[in-house]
Design brief:
With 401 residues, this protein is an alpha+beta fold. The chain has two domains: 102 residues, Phosphorylase Kinase, domain 1; 283 residues, Aminoglycoside 3'-phosphotransferase, Chain: A, domain 2 (Alpha-Beta Complex), CATH 3.90.1200.10. The protein is built from 14 helices and ten strands. Strand 2 and strand 3 form a beta hairpin. Helix 10 packs antiparallel against helix 11 and helix 13 crosses helix 14. The longest helix is centred in the C-terminal third of the chain and has 29 residues. The chain is globular, with a radius of gyration of 21 Å. The termini are far apart. The mean pLDDT is 95. Its EC number is 2.7.1.100. InterPro entries: Aminoglycoside_PTrfase, Kinase-like_dom_sf, Methylthioribose_kinase. Homodimer. GO terms for molecular function: ATP binding; S-methyl-5-thioribose kinase activity.
Length: 401
Amino acid sequence: MNFDKYFTMSEADAALYAKTKLDFFGKDEELVCKEIGDGNLNYIFKIDSLSTSKSLIIKQSGPVARISDEFKLSADRNRIEYEILKYQSTLAPGLVPEVYSYDPIMNCTSMEDLSDHVIMRTEMINHKQFKKFADDITTFMVNTLLLTSDVCMEHKAKKELVKNFINPELCEISEDLVYTEPFSDINNRNDIFAPNVDWVKENIYSDEALKLETAKLKFDFMNNAQALVHGDLHTGSIFIKEDSTKVIDPEFAFYGPMGYDVGNVIANLMFALANAQAYEKAEQIKWLEDTIVEVIDLFKEKFSKAWDEKASEYTAKYKGFKEYYLDTVLRDTAAVTGLEGIRRIVGIAHVKDITSIQDEEKRTKAERLCMLASKSFIMNREELKTGKDFLEVIKKTTVKL
């Protein structure tokens, strides 16, 4: 087996690939492999040596998504992920996994094994807290977003990155699943919790004012090549432990609006908060409320400081422009918080924070909380400027239910 023609690897194949194609393990080392992926798109293999403590991850992309054969995907997303992680490691050192190699034939990337970390979403469902998260994630977002924008980059160099990271197939998934289908079910792919079917029809599908705003936001998403966004920055794409945060899975990365990443983080903290409320976990509720406020406020503080230190575009230094620009990012953050908050409830790709709530009445309430708050985030996006503003949307909605 020379691995000179693409095929979807099994565990045995991946172990052989690691031994024969990667300069990582010794030739005489006995390897074991386990397929550990549970995502919607790819195959993830963990390779361990039985004679040493060395291990690595191999991530392979197929021509279709695992979630559904309807989604035909370019394997170039693996190349994008490899190059993005290499680039992000220079922008935000220590906040992404190390990548070792990329194979364009087998459509796979080998990278650092983060088995000493845990998936953040899983741990928050277990009502764990991570005091360092807000600081880490805001450093990551400011460094990977502002520093890849025209504010700080030479414009021709930035345009080369726009070209290199064009990502039409993955963007189309976002355009469909985030911006379009949750608000009308145009392709009949939505998956609504039975007690909320009629509620969604009345409060989401029939809300013409809401749909108009989502159309505006969709066209902005498609046309605003502002910064190199991660494109899927939720708590399932974050490995974490007490003293470390690692952002993974940037295969949806492309040049788009900065608020897309920040809003995804806030929305997924909202899902965790809804879960904590359903289980009446007071300490977890307090931590999540504080974290939502901190993420917005720390992002603003670090963004402003980085702008002052690293802005290179002459006109970006005009008085008042930084404040105007940051306001547009916060506006987009609020909008994407709402889009993500609805699409993860109504659409095809749910989150376990909500689906793991066993009590039907409490899950129904948690879903409505997220959807109603999300409508406010979208419709009132121009008004939200601080972390307290973002939290108040959720708290006021909670009181109404």
